[in-house]
Amino acid sequence: MTTPLGRVRGLGSAKGGTGPYVLKQASGLALGLLTPYIVGIGIYLFGRDRAFVVESVGSFWIGPALLAFIILSAIHMDVGMRAIIEDYVHGHLRKLAFMFLNSAFTWAVCMVCVFAILMMMFESVKA
Fold it and tell me: How many whole angstroms from its chain centre is CA 91?
């Protein structure tokens, strides 16, 4: 139950406002539009040899879409898990620890994926 002052400020129980909600909804919409294209790319590249895959990922139509999908997925996962942690983890230090681990894991996986895609993109340019 929120107080009238809380309703006026637009702050929920996490005291964060509507920013994370809007970010999660926007990234979800973008992922919903991008996912069929990425699935199509996966079907197209399934069973091909490595040289063909690297050359395809280096193209203008596939590489940037993969990068956008990975980065949007990381944003969506980070914001979504942060909302779950804020709602269900009690205790200030435990909540901070889980939020740090969530962000560290999410962005570490994202950076590894982005690095791998960039390596394939630049490998195809060099060849």
Answer: 27
| Residues 6+ away with beta carbon under 8 Å from 15 | none
Q: Which residue has the tokens 């630049």?
A: 122
Q: Which of 86, 90, 83 is nearest to 24 (CA)?
A: 83
Provide the domain limits for residue 114: 19-126
Q: What's the pTM?
A: 0.82
Is residue 9 one of the residues assigned to a domain?
no
In angstroms, the CA 3 to CA 92 distance is 23
Taking the C-alpha atoms of residue 109 and residue 70, their distance in angstroms, rounded to an integer, is 9
Q: SS3 letters for the chain?
A: CCCHHHHHHCCCCCCCCCHHHHHHHHHHHHHHHHHHHHHHHHHHHCCCCHHHHHHHHCCCCCHHHHHHHHHHHHHHHHHHHHHHHHHHCCCHHHHHHHHHHHHHHHHHHHHHHHHHHHHHHHHHHHC
Please state the domain count of the chain: 1
The pLDDT-based confidence of 50 (bands split at 50, 70, 90) is very high
